[in-house]
Amino acid sequence: MFDGPRDILIFKKNGEEFFRYYRELCGLKPNEKILDVGCGIGRKTVPLTKYLDRNGRYEGFDIVKLGIDWCRKRISTRYPNFHFQLADVFNKCYNPKGKYKASEYRFPFENESFDFVVLGSVFTHMLPEDIEKYFSEIARVLKTGGRCLISFFILNKESLELVNANKSTLDFKYEMGKYRTINANMSEDAVCYDESFILCLYEKHGLKINEPIHYGSWCERRNFLSYQDIIIATKV
Questions:
Q1: CA neighbours within 13 Å on the CB side: how many for 124?
Q2: Which pLDDT score, from 0 to 100, does residue 4 have?
Q3: 183, part of any domain
Q4: Is there a contact between 15 and 45 (Cβ–Cβ < 8 Å)?
Q5: What is the mean pLDDT for each group of 10 consecutive residues in the chain (236 residues)?
Q6: What positions does the domain Methyltransferase type occupy (predicted)?
């Protein structure tokens, strides 16, 4: 996005890809309320500006100030129902001076205030106790019947075999209990979770997975939807 035309094309392509998932896999409607956790520089936001109607609302937050500043300047000034907040949450990789622990952070929104929550490549950079807290917050702010779309790197029999055979695009060689990482000194660089751990979190927080799980190409599997693994669920 900041380095020239190629990045702009990737920016647009990624945004349109996820916009398609929102509509076709999650049934997103123009009048719904959306929370985008880890909105970044708005890759997944821009297509929504042409889709949400006056009754729809978008709220995004991120821990990186640069992205929030960009979104406020380029999006909020033109679309008043699109809002962006900076969350000063610590992350060793992306916000090492953050004020708040992710494991203690409360999303700045009321209970049951959103129809749809999305996290794209967020839990791929967070540790177990942190994503457990975020799962509880997702369940808290979702309305009953609301949906969430979250992407992961998931370790199961298929992906583990590919990782161990050195076929994966990411070398998750460091085992850390419930997860693996590519960087032993900074786990948040990229985190891959055991599937059983992830499934337990959905069950614990009343989020029913909308089968099937859409596995990704990151480990070089043959059949995939996107790059990362995607799970869509409904609050019951």
A1: 20
A2: 41
A3: no
A4: yes
A5: 58 93 98 98 96 98 97 97 98 97 98 99 98 99 99 98 98 96 98 98 99 99 98 99
A6: 35-150
Give the helix/strand (H/E) hosting 116.
Answer: strand 114-119
Does the residue 189 lie in any domain? Answer: no
Alpha carbon distance 117, 124 (integer Å):
16
Contact 37, 64 (CB under 8 A): no
Encoded tokens for 31: 């009048």
Q: Which residue blocks in 47-127 are alpha helix, DSSP H? A: 65-71
Domain-located, residue 165: no
Q: What is the CATH number of the domain that holds 110?
A: 3.40.50.150
Query: What pLDDT shows up at residue 67?
Result: 95
d(CA 11, CA 14): 5
Residues forming a β-bridge with 59: 35, 83
State the pTM of this model.
0.95
Give the tokens for residue 170: 């990411």
Angle of helix 128-141 relative to helix 195-204, nearest 10 degrees, comes to 30
Position 53 in a domain? yes
Q: Work out how many domains the chain is built from and give that number.
A: 1
Supply the Cα-derived Rg of the chain in whole angstroms: 17
Range of the domain at 214: 5-153+194-235
- The token duo for 27 is 């049934």
CB 193 within 8 A of CB 202: no
Separation CA 116–CA 122 (nearest Å): 16
Residue pair 156/229 in contact by the 8 Å Cβ criterion: no
